[in-house]
Amino acid sequence: MTQMEIMTAYKEKMSPIKSTGRKVVVLLSGGMDSTTLVYYMRNLGHEVYPITFDYGQKHSKELTSAERTCKKLELSYKFVEIGLGDIAPSALTRIDIKIPHGNYDEESMKVTVVPNRNMVFLSLATAYAIGIGAEKVAYAAHSGDHAIYADCRPAFIDVMKEAIYLCSDDEVVLNTPFEFIDKVEILKIGQTLGVDYSLTWSCYEGGELACGRCGTCRERLEAFEKVGIEDPISYKE
Amino acid sequence: MTQMEIMTAYKEKMSPIKSTGRKVVVLLSGGMDSTTLVYYMRNLGHEVYPITFDYGQKHSKELTSAERTCKKLELSYKFVEIGLGDIAPSALTRIDIKIPHGNYDEESMKVTVVPNRNMVFLSLATAYAIGIGAEKVAYAAHSGDHAIYADCRPAFIDVMKEAIYLCSDDEVVLNTPFEFIDKVEILKIGQTLGVDYSLTWSCYEGGELACGRCGTCRERLEAFEKVGIEDPISYKE
Questions:
Q1: Of the residues A192, B16, B74, B190, which has the fewest C-beta atoms closer than 10 A?
Q2: Å from A172 to nearest chain B CA?
Q3: Candidates B82, B114, B122; nearest CB to A82
């Protein structure tokens, strides 16, 4: 299948439909996956309410990215500060723990796991959803995260779906449309939806330019390479 | 059964055992139930790590109560601020929504529901537990809360047990020993454990003295009356 054929196939599947009038709270980090999810939910005709968490991450540049995407799409934007670094240590929040370079393999990247981050985010997003009367909470867990992040795995997602449904008195449903696809597929979908990836940020380092060497930079670059398009952001090396 | 017989029965069941060396994170609000749970877990020989949340509640007096109990028992104390009132509205956090007076029946008390509060607290407590290597997280959900609080019901607790186990890579277990007993039973247990209830706070109003009229005050007074002992805190009326 050529790139053109893939795009056409996706375009047919993804063509915008009429407004559903449904409110969806989307966990938006400012990275590629969650930004694509915002476009995806919007394209389904939902009213999208992104929620972004400042949990003391070094790569706070992703927060600016999240905000820029919301401005571009004219979406109401919820920003929540939560001191996760103080509650549980991780290389992403503590200056005394270094971000590892190299591949996204299990051992080296383990220090980047923020304990229980997704459950914390999902619980707060659900509180927000109940408050604004949203019918869905969505997050961009994908198959590439399964190995190292326990809170991205299908087994966890399944019980969280039940927990969220129950705690909201059967009113909020958890959606994870990217659960069984990888970053390459997500990027292909994003291409057909016109996602502006120049506004996204992935690098775990807090630098001015993306490092190009940490696990998340490598994963991103690999996805762009596989889809055969150029990453619109600049890299240090 | 006389009060004396009940106390003796509990004392036999509850006699302190040797240290288990296990760390348990206990959600401590500063109220009767969670304070009893701290004593209960301590009495089982566990190292107890209370965690308390300032979520913008009007009755912030309970925070002082939580701290005083921790000081009395010489426990390391974790205090977390989380702006829930800003994320989802409730009578407990918004000055523009009044605390209802009267019985703890479903309709009048519904405004006191803080959307998804327990899932938020449990997710943060689990992050903390993973960070300090604790084996358990415990919270004092009890049968009296089932009717109005979705996040105190057995069905919710069951899935959260699974979710917490999964997201912690099978390392953290959720304990809810009071799940099927009521406040009267909790108070009886507390009596045998020597819980200092003068350091607890229940009233939802933010006053100097407990109002004696809100749902939680009434429920507390009723429990003390049924057990046949005097509530050591003072009331306005």
A1: B74
A2: 11
A3: B82
Between chains, do A123 and B127 touch, taking CB under 8 Å as contact?
no
Q: Where are the beta strands (DSSP E) in chain A?
A: 23-27, 47-54, 78-81, 136-138, 173-175
pLDDT, position B60 = 75
What is the residue whose two structure tokens read 């009495």? B43
ipTM, two decimals, is 0.80
Low-confidence ranges of chain B (pLDDT < 70): 1-17, 58-59, 90-113
Would residue B232 count as lying in a domain?
no
Q: How much is the pLDDT for A166?
A: 93
What's the first-to-final CA gap in chain A, in angstroms?
32
- Residue A50: CB atoms within 10 Å: 29
Range of the domain at B159: 3-227
Tell which of A167, A168, A174 to mutate to test the B interface (max B CBs under 10 Å).
A167
pLDDT for A152 equals 86
- The predicted-structure confidence for B149-208, as pLDDT tens digits, reads as follows 888 899 999 999 999 999 998 899 999 999 999 999 999 999 999 999 999 998 887 788
DSSP A204: S
Tell me how far apart the alpha carbons of residues A156 and A172 are, in angstroms, rounded to a whole number: 17
Extract the tokens encoding B118.
Answer: 């327990």
- Written in H, E and C, the secondary structure of A44-102 is CCCEEEEEEEECCCCCCHHHHHHHHHHHHCCCCCEEEECCHHHHCCCCCCCCCCCCCEC
Show residues of chain A in contact with B168, CB under 8 Å: 115-116, 150
CB neighbour list of residue A234: distance below 8 Å, 6 or more residues apart: A209, A210
Number of domains in chain A: 1
Does the residue A3 lie in any domain?
Answer: no
The angle at the Cα of A56, spanning B175 to A180, to the nearest 5 degrees, equals 65
Higher pLDDT, A229 or A6: A229
Residue B235 lies in a domain: no
CATH of the domain at B45: 3.40.50.620
Interface test with B, best of A25, A149, A159 (most B CBs within 10 A): A159
- Helix (H) or strand (E) segment spanning residue B175: strand B173-175
**Any domain includes B195:** yes
SS3 A165: helix
Burial class (CB in 10 A: 0-12, 13-18, 19+), B22: middle
Which secondary-structure segment (H or E) carries A154? helix A154-167
* Model pLDDT, residue B62: 79
Contact list, B113 vs chain A (CB under 8 Å): none
- Assign A137 a pLDDT band (cuts: 50, 70, 90): very high
